[in-house]
């Protein structure tokens, strides 16, 4: 009878290790497949950071493209949502301008129901009461960064009740009037809004 040594049936650990063939075709012990350089980079924290970066950069790009495509006017069915900054962004002579100097796309909004987002401004009163109230896209940018231009202001004309002066961004809804009005040799008004709703932007 032939006796089998138990130690002869054991497989050496080295025999189970993947090998790479050498130039002569002989396996090289201890070789392991190399990992992709990207494997260590694509961890959860990197992916979260990349997602946040895309969101932060993507939103301004989206706003720019949306404004370029829509021209600052969105049809919401019962009213038009108009970008106030875009509507204000054109040049005109502050003394001799006429209706024709207002771009046609804005003149065509005359008599339309619109919603504008901006800040309420009153030159007569720091508290915003006891004087005329205008809507501007940014008080800091259009009222204190150089001589203000009349096309940057939308005169608010209440239709049902007095306008409650609200600080910060507000949405004002009503009927827009577009007409160049002059007095004392200068343009006094281009836009006015017969407002029936003033709501704080939340």
Which characteristics define this entry?
202 residues; alpha+beta; two-stranded antiparallel ribbon; 9 strands; 28% strand; elongated
Account of the protein in words:
By secondary structure, the chain is an alpha+beta fold. It is built from five helices and nine strands. The termini are far apart.
The percentage of residues in β strands lies in 25-35%
What is the number of E strands? 9
H/E element sequence: HEEHEEHHEEHEEE
Biggest sheet, strands in spatial order?
5-6-7-9-8
N-to-C terminal Cα separation, in Å? 94 Å
Average of pLDDT? 79
Low-confidence stretches: none
- Note the total helix count: 5
| Overall outline | elongated
What structural class should be given to the helix and strand makeup?
A: alpha+beta
Q: Largest beta sheet, briefly? A: 5 strands, mixed, barrel
